[in-house]
Design a protein that fits this description.
By secondary structure, this protein is mainly beta. It folds into two domains: 98 residues, Sandwich (Jelly Rolls); 95 residues. The chain is built from one helix and 19 strands. The strands form five sheets. A six-stranded mixed β-sheet has the order 1-2-4-7-8-6. A six-stranded mixed β-sheet has the order 9-11-14-18-19-16, with no helix packed on it. The longest helix is centred in the N-terminal third of the chain and has 5 residues. The chain is elongated, with a radius of gyration of 22 Å. The termini are far apart. The mean pLDDT is 78.
């Protein structure tokens, strides 16, 4: 049966395809240009990191793929958390956020050889939590701020210059709280990474306690509010 297979309602994908078991609606794992010619609803079930650069289409009946598929809409449910869709070339997304989180649903429409994002859910990605992180000798300089709006830092073992944040989403704002030895946590720098600081390349914490606020518009570049607070 077709996509309209629920009486007085709407359903996507072939009938009887509730589980991730039917190859007909699964994006081929590891394929960076998966074919979406047949169907509307697709699952991403990659088992290794995969960066998708395009969604292929095939023309039928002697009609070229571009004109035949103008206006085609696809809906993708990401079961995995290993897939990245490149926001470049003929794929135009609302923002770039690195790997697409698991349980995300994305809608795209095709026109004139390009795919345009219509909408994207951010299930289980609310920024409402407090994260407590301890940076040590082996810690990365990029702090993961997934599902957080406040990050409380402590430092042991070494000094750190923080160069960026990972795991953020568009329009997220985070407050970094630090209390401890200012000789250990040096501060932030924009010489590398994804930080944009106000009027300077480096910010040092003043004294033993400080708070700093960063906001991102696209999930990748973080802008400071120039509001360093220290007693």
């Amino acid at each position: 049966m077709g996509n309209n297979r629920i009486r007085y309602g709407l359903a996507y994908g072939p009938e009887g395809s509730a589980g991730a078991t039917s190859a007909g609606h699964i994006l081929t794992p590891g394929d960076t240009t998966p074919d979406v010619s047949n169907g509307v609803f697709f699952l991403s079930v990659n088992t290794s990191a995969t960066a998708i650069s395009y969604f292929d289409l095939v023309g039928k009946g002697g009609i070229d793929a571009v004109s035949q598929n103008n206006g085609k809409v696809i809906k993708i449910l990401f079961i995995d958390a290993l897939t990245t869709i490149n926001n470049a070339g003929n794929v135009i997304l609302a923002d770039t956020t690195g790997a697409i989180p698991a349980n995300t649903v994305m809608d795209l429409v095709h026109y004139n050889s390009s795919w345009y994002e219509i909408s994207r859910s951010r299930n289980n990605q609310t920024q409402s939590g407090l994260r407590r992180l301890n940076l040590n000798v082996a810690a990365s300089n990029a702090i993961n701020v997934t599902s957080a709006n406040i990050v409380a830092l402590t430092v042991t073992g070494a000094s750190h210059i923080l160069t960026g944040f990972a795991g953020g989403v568009s329009n997220q704002s985070i407050t970094i709280l630090y209390s401890g030895n200012s000789s250990q946590l040096t501060g932030f720098t924009q010489s590398a990474g994804n930080l944009v600081l106000a009027g300077t390349n480096a910010v040092n914490f003043l004294g033993g306690s400080a708070a700093f606020i960063f906001t991102t518009l696209n999930g990748s570049e973080w802008i400071s509010d120039a509001g360093l607070v220290s007693p």
